[in-house]
Amino acid sequence: MDYDLFDLYEFVWPVARGGHKWITGVTLFEDMRHSGDATNGDKGENRATGWLPRPFLMPITMNDEEVRATYPLRELKGRLHREFARTPPTLEGIKKFADEFGLLGGDIGETPVVDVGGPHSPIGPGEGFSDWAVEISRMAEAVEFWDLARKNDTKRLSDLIHWREDSVALKLAIGYRPIAASNFRTDLFEQVQPGDLVEPAMFVVQEIVNDHLSNKARAGPRLLWDVKQRTLSQRVTPRALIGAIWLDFLLAIDGNTDYRPCLRCDAPFPVTPKGQRRKFCSDRCRVAHHRKKRNQGGSP
Hints:
Layout: E1 13-16, E2 20-27, H1 28-34, E3 54-59, E4 67-70, H2 72-75, H3 80-85, H4 91-101, E5 112-115, E6 122-125, E7 127-128, H5 129-151, H6 154-160, E8 161-164, E9 167-172, E10 175-181, H7 186-191, H8 198-212, E11 219-226, E12 231-238, H9 241-254, E13 258-261, E14 268-271, H10 283-295
Antiparallel strand pairs: 1-4, 2-3, 2-5, 3-7, 5-6, 8-9, 9-10, 11-12, 13-14
Helix pairs in contact: 5-8
């Protein structure tokens, strides 16, 4: 699939200009469920245990004047999912990603949140730290497997994928998860040569991407106007940033995209046939690198 297809439509995503903040809260459902279970008769304080306050990420403000429109699939095509995968799954790392690219939205941001440190009233949809951490972890896992499969890195894959006589499984910290077997996904198991590690790794990528994209309805078909052909065309489009991130990965896999680390920030960026000489992921990194060289008295 050609990335130029994205020129036929614009996926626009709002980002709060003022950035984001973490609050300690619970979902509105949890708050309502336990609002009458006060330990001292006061419904607003010292509620009985049964829910656990946890971090939620919120925009500082989302007024129309305080929002900037971004076009992540146009501006970061092939790189958006890599930026997400290398995001540290920490409060600071997640906030930094959100400040630049926005909240994930979709099924991640559908739950109204109550700030337990405030007046115990809903303050709008928030995105839980654990949801972000899971998405980042799964994307990082899928990207690793895809890169290892493309490089045919059987040495590293042998640490992650184990064969038995009637099955091939993914090694986990707590045991094994079957990828295919004589009695599980038999069609896939019969296609793989015994001992092969590359195709099972691709099956892992397939499962993760399908689970986080199509199974959660984060993208879907739409009729869009093709300005060049002057007709309606069917396209698969994301419904939120989280869908755009996983769709970006899907398209990178479909295009068998190559990557190179940026000379300045080490972030991987896609290498196209026309951009074989590129050394930087963005103009910002290129300018910063040359400015640093000049300040140090060296040549760019």
